[in-house]
Amino acid sequence: QVQLVESGGGLVQAGGSLRLSCAASGRTFSVYVMGWFRQAPGKEREFVAAISWSAGSTYYTDSVKGRFTISRDNAKNTGYLQMNSLKPEDTAVYYCAARRTTVDITTATGYDYWGQGTQVTVSS
Question: What is the rounded CA–CA span in Å between residue 81 and residue 72?
C-alpha cells in the first residue's frame, strides 16, 4: 500500500501563487508516476499534471501550461505542484495520485492511490 498526504492549499488572490506538496509513504517503490487532479463543485475530476518518478518527464493539461510546474524529490518521496498566475477557474480540491503504470496517465481511473485532497481557492 501507498499513502499520499497533500498539503499547501489555501486562499489566494488571482495572479498569486501556491505550492502544493504530496508526501508518499509505504511501498513507495511501486510508484512510477505521480499526478495531480482537481475537482470543482459540480464538475468531473480533471487531470492537471503528472511526472514520471524515475526520469522526471512531465505532462500538463493545456489550461495550466506555462503557469504550473510539477516536480519531485526522490530522496524525500515527495512531489510538488508549483502554481503561479492563479485564476479563479483554478479553484478546486486538488488531489495527489500515484500509479504503477505509465499507460494513459491523464485518466483518473488508471491511478492506484489517492490522497485526501487539499482545497485551493482563488479569489477575483
Answer: 9
Residue 18 CA to residue 83 CA, distance in Å, equals: 5
Which three-class secondary structure state does DSSP give residue 110?
Answer: helix
Q: How many residues does the chain have?
A: 124
Cell of 54: 524515475
Which residue spans within 1-124 are E strands per DSSP? 2-7, 10-13, 18-26, 33-39, 46-52, 58-60, 68-73, 78-83, 92-99, 113-114, 118-123
For residue 98, which of 114, 109, 76 has the smallest C-alpha distance? Answer: 114
Round to whole Å and give the CA distance between 50 and 43.
20
Residue-wise pLDDT for 103-114, tens only, equals 888 999 999 999
Q: How many CB atoms lie within 10 A of CB 33?
A: 22
Higher pLDDT, 29 or 17: 17
Chain centre distance of CA 81: 6
Average pLDDT of the residues in 44-61: 95
Burial 64-96 (b: 16+ CB within 10 A, else e): beeebbbebeeeebbbbbebeebeeebbbbbbb
